[in-house]
Request: fold
Amino acid sequence: MKFSTRSRYGVNAMFELALRYGEGAVSLKDVADKQSISEAYLEQLMIRLRKAGLVESQRGVQGGYLLSDRPENVSVGSIIRVLEGSVSPVDCIEGKGCQRGGTCPGRIVWQKIYDSVNDVIDRITLQDMIEEYTKQEHHG
Amino acid sequence: MKFSTRSRYGVNAMFELALRYGEGAVSLKDVADKQSISEAYLEQLMIRLRKAGLVESQRGVQGGYLLSDRPENVSVGSIIRVLEGSVSPVDCIEGKGCQRGGTCPGRIVWQKIYDSVNDVIDRITLQDMIEEYTKQEHHG
DNA sequence: CAAATCCCGACTTTGTAAATAGGGTATTGA
DNA sequence: TCAATACCCTATTTACAAAGTCGGGATTTG
Reply:
């Protein structure tokens, strides 16, 4: 069970924006460099995040991206859901149900995983990430 | 975030064996038909499950597969881990840690998801699935 | 106007899950 | 003993989505 790198990149990028919240726009290049992500690839992700309303963008010289809201108001779940599409572990959950008529025997399993993951990612905010991060000695 | 169909097929197949626990060996063909899985594909999964000790096999006429243990002693987690390899949502968790030196900012997120999913799947047994299943009216 | 920067669709590459194929081995029972 | 049944195992093919690249366009600033 893996998340795509989109989620990982996206969360890291948003974390970077959160670190600099209140300091004006941060350019794509900046974020990509800091988080070691391909700039062209990250661009696609940022566009999605913008369309979802999680970040705002400014064009032109000195332009870049900014969080639309304070870090404590942005859950990791909202980021992941935008980039991952859905957190459903199998297709049965969310929408059409499985082809096998009613419910499949495994539904109880996938549903519980689904609920649990959603619960976890909705409880963590960017602010939590910052606090966790500064608590340790990552300052190089 | 998706599980591979291996996990879904595997859980469903094991569920089928659980339903018939105590009735002797169930052939691959039988399981494949009941759960609508390609027989040749399911075979690969069953072999893995056998090597992991979760099922036993009997060759020859009347042969097939049987659970190695009672349904209440088989967790869904043990099945999924065999088939999925690992439940880690990103590569940072489990083993080598990420390339970015120490810890990545997102680690707190992925670690919590990992713990949570493992907790859920370890708590559900095949017996639970049977009970959940018979509780509903799937008898056609 | 030039430089910086975001915008966006189309395309290519790559990795791996999913599925198939086919020959081999053990067991049963007529 | 032989044929049928069923598991065993490796190799290969297919399918598809993620990951990454490309190139031209639009905006903003100075």
